[in-house]
Design a protein that fits this description.
Number of helices: 12
CATH class: Alpha Beta
Number of strands: 11
CATH topology: Rossmann fold
Strand content: 15-25%
Structural class: alpha/beta
Distance between the termini: 51 Å
Mean pLDDT: 81
Shape: globular
Order of helices and strands: HHHEEEHEHEHEHEEEEHHEHHH
Radius of gyration: 19 Å
Number of domains: 1
Length: 350
């Protein structure tokens, strides 16, 4: 009973619930928080763009198919205005795109509210202007069978990974991209980067994401690898397997698409201790509980991976607010996510 209770608590600690279920239709406009209060991050960083990319109307796309994403951007009066893929992709010189991906049990309006809180914590006041992208996916609780719903949402993260990978593939090759996710949101990040690197997730793959056909002197076609993305990623309390990122793992190509990846976890996490119940595999352990096993070599092909055990700070809590409330955690995340461009430059500095 204790194990089931712990697993069921995903629904409380991965996002909670708002008292009202607010529709996120393509034509709706919601107020999204501070519009100029003297102490707000948005007031201190007026040049930041706040975007919401929603997949809540996306079904089950096929490989290579464009998912029906909806885009909106925050206006100066604090409302969300409908936008398009073309507008989103049109990169502003020197502006990083920083994605925030929430966990399980989050309603549409709550995704925006939590996203603004993440913007407060994961963007340094001294950084150049960025595009902060709130990824809103259908993770809200459904039905009364909580454990079953948690497992189903875990499967949904694979669709989300495809949607994220597809969107990244539409961005410029030298786009400065960073990603930060919490719990199930980390699955979306790892799976998305894996797909960008040429992998597949549950039968889904991009249309030749990393390989192009070149002709040699004899006129014969051969596959050559495109330049890898240099994304930076932070995984908070990752509800994914501890071996998913290693060679032969479920998302083995993810690290190859990063210049830096930081996993912040708690070896005392009382919820992720029971992660095997979510996967039905007794030997599974969570990255957010154990750390990466085994650690990959620090070579160019594997990107740069680091991890930080914060169990001494947060104890057994598996709660986003707890992670956001510790300066040591948010400071480490901001450092890992820091832009590699300087104002006025269009490409990565590294």
């Amino acid at each position: 009973m204790l194990a089931v209770t712990a697993l069921s608590s995903y629904g409380i600690v991965l996002g909670g619930e708002m008292p009202s279920d607010i529709s996120n239709s393509a034509t709706s406009k919601h107020h999204v928080g501070p519009s100029g209060g003297p102490g707000s991050m948005l007031a201190c960083r007026p040049l930041d763009q706040i975007w919401v990319v929603s997949t809540r109307d996306v079904g089950c796309p096929k490989s290579g198919e464009a998912p029906a994403l909806t885009f909106s951007v925050r206006t100066v009066d604090g409302n969300m205005q409908d936008a398009s893929l073309d507008v989103f992709v049109a990169a502003t010189a020197g502006m990083q795109a920083r994605f925030w991906i929430h966990g399980y049990g989050v309603l549409p309006q709550e995704a925006i509210d939590v996203g603004l809180a993440a913007h407060e914590r994961f963007v340094a006041a001294t950084e150049p202007p960025i595009r902060f992208v709130v990824w809103s996916w259908p993770s809200e609780r459904e039905g009364y069978r909580r454990v079953k719903d948690i497992r189903e949402k875990g499967c949904r993260t694979q669709v989300e990974a495809y949607c994220l990978a597809w969107l990244i593939s539409q961005m410029k090759a030298d786009a400065d991209i960073s990603l930060v996710g919490y719990s199930y949101g980390t699955r979306v990040i790892a799976g998305g980067l894996h797909l960008v690197g040429g992998g597949e997730v549950c039968g889904l793959g991009l249309a030749s994401p990393t390989l192009v056909l070149a002709s040699d002197q004899g006129g014969q076609g051969h596959a050559v690898r495109r330049e890898s993305r240099n994304c930076r990623a932070v995984l908070l309390a990752a509800a994914m397997g501890s071996d998913w990122l290693v060679e032969g793992g479920f998302n083995e190509h993810a690290l190859g698409q990063t210049s830096e990846m930081l996993s912040i976890y708690s070896s005392s996490d009382r919820v992720l201790k029971f992660y095997p119940l979510a996967t039905r595999e007794k030997r599974d352990t969570a990255l957010g509980y154990r750390g990466l096993a085994p650690l990959p070599p620090r070579d160019e092909g594997n990107g740069k991976y680091a991890e930080l055990d914060v169990g001494y700070l947060i104890g057994g809590e598996h709660d986003l607010e707890t992670y956001l409330g510790h300066l040591e955690i948010t400071a480490a995340a901001r450092e890992a996510l820091a832009p590699t461009t300087t104002p006025g430059e269009g490409g990565p500095a590294k």
